[in-house]
Amino acid sequence: MNINKQQAQKIAFILFRLMSFSVVGVLLIILGLIIYRGIGTISWDFLSQAPEQGMTKGGIYPAIIGTLYLILGSSLFSFPIGIMSGIFMSEYAANNRLIVMIRIMTNSLSGVPSVVFGLFGMSLFVNTLGFGDSILAGSLTLGLLSLPLVIRTTEESLKAVDYAYREGSLALGASKLQTIRNVVFPMAFPNIISGLILSIGRVSGETAPILFTVAAYFLPKLPSSIFDQVMALPYHLYVISTSGTDIEASRDIAYGTALVLVTIVLILNILANLLRRYFAKKVKTN
Amino acid sequence: MSTIDARNVDFYYGNFHTLKNINLEVQKSEVVALIGPSGCGKSTFLRLLNRMNDLIDGVSITGTILINGLDIYATSVRVDELRKEVGMVFQKPNPFPKSIFDNVAYGLRVNGVKDKALIEQRVEESLKSAALWGEVKEKMKKSAFALSLGQQQRLCIARALAVKPKVILMDEPASALDPISTTKIEDLIHELKQDYTIVIVTHNMQQASRVSDKTAYFYLGELIEYDKTTTIFTNPQKLSTQNYITGRFG
Fold first, then answer.
1. Tens digits of per-residue pLDDT, A199-253?
2. Is residue A44 part of a domain?
3. CA angle B33, B69, B51 (to 5 degrees)
4. Is A165 on the interface with B (CB under 8 A)?
């Protein structure tokens, strides 16, 4: 049978459409399942109480707080370093061998399995530097993990700013730093900020890097310093689904925890979009 | 003393010999048009005058360029000081994503002017000189992006005027604009030549003949002919010039 090009086009488009819908479908099924199984568990007490009775009852408050601390800690570490590196890579570095090397390494770093980051963090921060299992060690490890993403986002966002704006500024006698601070960075900022928030989303869901560096199996009290351990949502989810005291009895809590985690990531994504739009508008209309 | 005096200038992009032994003088308050086919080196030459080509890797220049007697490629010259003296207007209007006021004030602020009254006064003066004041005085806080392309280009001219340059370089300033906006820019050039020396690159032969006192014809990196504009357009000495201005090639 001969297929003419109109028919071929029709078939191709049906195929493309089917594939893209199937992605959405899978996402909806996952979300649907988590909401369906988890929504019954969500209550104010679940969000504000510590786990009880071998983590088969009670809430997940310490894990929520722990995850928020880790998000904050890793951001404090990775944002300044990542943004400054990104600026260097985009604005200052000549296209020489060193830069190509740095870029390749940055890319490879983002390909390193997260469990390797966990082992590295344990060896360097926990043991060698003597931070112990702590928020500090966990934040640094998570920060390292998200660093390549922050660098890349910053670099790409800056590069997307038309060269004409740099020339316009330089031609008025502005220095390179003034040009970056007053013109290029503000224009790239909407995209940078959405990249940063997406990296937070990634950090909040990671389990392996915190496994050996910070996460506590069960720790109902809140941390009092950065050298304390904390519980964290993804690790808590892992624990009560695989090695809790009574896995069957804590099944609902597991789905509830998953729902909270997914909601946090979802909120961060929406926030990323809103901030991007807000700053894009602000930059244009001042 | 000539305002611009280029002597034996050679310029290379890597191994590519872009400009060959250019000698060109511009007197105070003259408008000089640089014409020639694409790739002839006229824009490259223009960008040597405020050292914009410094931003490109792997370029080299020999010869000297004096502006008001100062060798601008001397090691003692600070490039930001030079660019205050030699302003530039680009092909595509490139206002910053800031308010109209902040766009014009930008050059003053980055050069350390803090006096608010002075900044306000200069912004108004510059916008008046760029024939834009009447159209924008009510909306100084509005984004520059809200202006039409033609207005944006005049804003970019005002921005350049605010730091009080002696020379203004224009790189095809009207090529992205409609005919009416183009006319306004050309009228503006006539006004500005009272106070400034202007070098303009253009692809538009009529424009060159309308706005300039002298015209330099570039071809394949060489300055073929440089003379009064009326002479270039009525009685060119070189065949190549004649062929180009009569539209036989280019």
1. 998 898 888 999 889 888 777 788 888 888 888 889 889 888 887 677 777 788 8
2. no
3. 60
4. yes
Residue A220 is assigned to a structural domain of this protein: no
Dump pLDDT digits (tens) for A3-22. 788 889 999 999 999 999 99
Segments forming the whole domain that contains residue B157: 4-245
- Rounded distance, CA A180 to CA A83, Å? 12
Chain B CB within 8 Å of residue A4 CB: no
Assess contact for A136 and A67: CB atoms under 8 A: no
As for the ipTM of the complex, it is 0.92
Side-chain-side CA neighbours of A50 within 13 Å: the count stands at: 13
Structurally, chain B folds into a number of domains equal to 1
How does residue A284 score in pLDDT terms, banded at 50, 70 and 90?
low
Least Cα distance to B187 among B166, B209, B167, B210 occurs for B210
CA distance B236 to B93: 33
Identify from A166, A172, A281 which residue to disrupt to test chain B contact, counting B C-beta atoms within 10 A and taking the largest count.
A172
Give the whole-angstrom CA distance, residue B94 versus residue B156: 7
Q: What is the CATH number of the domain that holds B65?
A: 3.40.50.300
Report the gap between the CA of B233 and the closest CA in chain A (Å): 32
Could you tell me if residue A10 is inside a domain? no
| Residue A88 structural domain | 64-213+264-285
Instruction: Give domain status of residue A42, yes or no.
Output: no
Residues B65/B131, Cβ–Cβ less than 8 Å: no
pLDDT band at B74 (very low <50, low <70, confident <90, very high): very high
Query: Would B133 be classed as within a structural domain?
Result: yes
Query: Per the structure, how many domains does chain A have?
Result: 1
CA distance linking residue A284 with residue A163, whole number of Å: 17
Residue pairs spanning A and B at CB distance below 8 A:
79
CATH number, domain containing residue A126: 1.10.3720.10
The two tokens of residue B89 are 């207007």
Which amino acid would we find at residue A281?
Answer: K
**Which residues between 143 and 162 in chain A have a beta carbon less than 8 angstroms from any beta carbon of chain B?**
162
Mean pLDDT of B100-119: 94
Helix (H, G, I), strand (E, B) or coil at B18: strand
- For the entire predicted model, the pTM comes to 0.85
Task: Give B141-154 as a DSSP string.
Answer: TSBGGGS-HHHHHH
Residue B223 lies in a domain: yes
Which two structure tokens, joined as six digits, stand for B183? 């006319």
CA nearest neighbour of B231 among B221, B242, B220: B242
